Amino acid sequence: MTREASEPGGIVVVGNGMAGARLVSEIRARDPHVPLTVFGAEAWQPYNRVLLSNVLAGATGPDQIGLVDPAWYGANRVDARLGVEVVRIDREARVVHGSDGSAVPYRTLVLATGSSSFVPPIPGTRDGLPAGAVAFRTLDDCSAIIDAADGARRAVVVGGGLLGIEAARGLVGRGLEVTVVHLAGHLMERQLDPGAGKVLARTLGRLGIRARVDVSVSALRVVLDAGAPRVTGVELAGCGGAEGADGAEFLGADLVVLACGVRPEVGLACAAGLEVDRGIVVDEELRSVSDPAVRAIGECSQYGDTVYGLVAPAWEQATVLADLLTGADARARFTGARQITRLKAASVDLVSMGETHHGDDDPDVEVIRFADASRGTYKKVTIREDRVIGAILLGETSTAGTLTQLYDRAAPLPADRLSLFFPGLGGAQPADSPVRMPDAATVCHCNNVTKGQIRACWEKGARTADEVAARTRATTGCGGCRDAVEGIVGWLGEQESVPAG
Question: Which pathway does the protein contribute to (predicted)?
């Protein structure tokens, strides 16, 4: 730690997750001298939350998902206070107070407090979660689930959204019998239409994951074990089947994972008197509308009517704010971001973007759909005025690059609509192949890395996807672009080996 980092006139970042950690690194890349302090409530070094499901499945170790080398802070004169929570903001004095008793002044305060798990207020949760029940959000949660899974036979995952599906896939990979219980009528209802939700449920069923939709959990059933409560399953309201003593259906489980969604962590902002709707309300400069000395980014912030819950918009906000705070680009602005969701668990590959819920009865929208439930494949593209406004690719995602480019740029569609689903149809080369992809095409959407940047890395000596990742951060977000980056690197290598003339 450096004393200068805590002197008046510095930047203080509250939150050291994916948004806060990225902001700190982006600031230091632009200005090595500005006093910079970061508070992280978790004692861990910042890590990639997107990859927690890989840790849960046992495919990746916790040490493999870190975002910042621990030695980086000292080498870059960043005052990193890990495991220290900010408990109060004094806006008048421009001071933040830490849980360790520290008081740190700031010139600019950035709130990157992220989100917290939503735990439904039902019997069994109101006095804290019993043993064997864990809300899935952090690396500590992941470790607790792994510990609880050891020796367990049956698990219930409450919530069939993105995080719940990832948790279920990880648990079934550890040999547990898994049931997903979901309140909505189909899985991942925010990203998928009913048809895709049904195909996803069928795919999960083949993997050993049972999906129960359109049901609600009314309680956690617990027993006392050595005087402490331990979960034995969940009660479902209004369902037929095996019943408990009160008539509710009972699903027995040794482990219950709560993946019921998240809520922006805005308690600190509310207590400080900042304007909060669903998130901390900010303008195009990520400035709180209540206080020009306070900025907010990531899942705790709200721009317009939107709270962005994905990593790519958070990292885009971090880049914009770093430009503004260091003066690298005084014209930088955040004007919103397109949201692209990827689920890449073992045997489940999914990409969803934009407006996906339009049906065939909307006269202003053209809908193209292909489904093969037996193969776990569902593809849908929604089009308005010859532009892609939404897409779902489930089970077979080879045209994801093409669709993402069309969606991002609002570019005109090819005359042959079926080529959006089937690459190379009619002898045409897929638009997302390395050969036809323009240098301006975005390959890694989490980090906004283009094919041209990957080519530039190659020309400077990068010969593997890992070397490209080290220089550009491509593949370090959701990891969904790994195959594309490797394809481009491989193609560049082939071009280099072709004799001239």
Answer: Nitrogen metabolism; nitrate reduction (assimilation)
Residue 348 inside a domain? The answer is no
Q: Do residues 313 and 321 make contact, with C-beta atoms less than 8 angstroms apart? A: no
H/E run at residue 383: strand 377-384
What's the confidence (pLDDT) of residue 243? 52
Residue 233's domain spans which residues?
A: 133-260
How would DSSP label each residue in 36-71? EEEEESSSSPPB-GGGHHHHHHTSS-GGGSBSS-HH
316 touches 131 (CB < 8 A): no
Q: What is the token pair recorded at 115?
A: 């989100």
pLDDT band at residue 338, thresholds of 50, 70 and 90?
A: confident
Count the residues in the chain: 501
- For residue 495, the model assigns a pLDDT of 66
Which residues lie below 8 Å from residue 94, measured CB to CB, with a gap of 6+? 105, 106, 107, 109, 293
d(CA 171, CA 55): 11
Handedness of CA 492, 493, 498, 500 (dihedral sign): positive
One-letter amino acid of 34: V
Does 160 map to a domain?
Answer: yes
Q: 377 pLDDT exceeds 50?
A: yes
Give me the CATH number covering residue 413.
3.30.390
pLDDT at 5: 39
> Given pLDDT bands bounded at 50, 70 and 90, which one contains residue 6?
very low
Instruction: Note the pLDDT of residue 418.
Output: 82
- Residue 206 has a CB neighbour count (10 Å cut-off) of 10
Q: Is residue 335 part of a domain?
A: no
Can you name the residues that pair with 126 across neighbouring β-strands? 128
pLDDT > 60? residue 140: yes
pLDDT digits over 447-467, tens only? 878 888 888 888 788 888 888
Q: Which of 116, 163, 135, 115 is nearest to 220 (CA)?
A: 135
**Which pLDDT does position 346 carry in this prediction?**
67
* Whether the Cβ atoms of residue 480 and residue 48 lie closer than 8 Å to each other: no
Q: What is the pLDDT of residues 117-136, one digit of tens each?
A: 999 999 999 889 999 999 99
Classify strands 95-98 and 103-105 as parallel, antiparallel or unpaired. Answer: antiparallel
- Backbone torsions φ then ψ of 492, nearest 5 degrees: -60, -40
| CATH number of residue 42's parent domain | 3.50.50.60
Q: What is residue 146's predicted lDDT score, i.e. its pLDDT?
A: 95
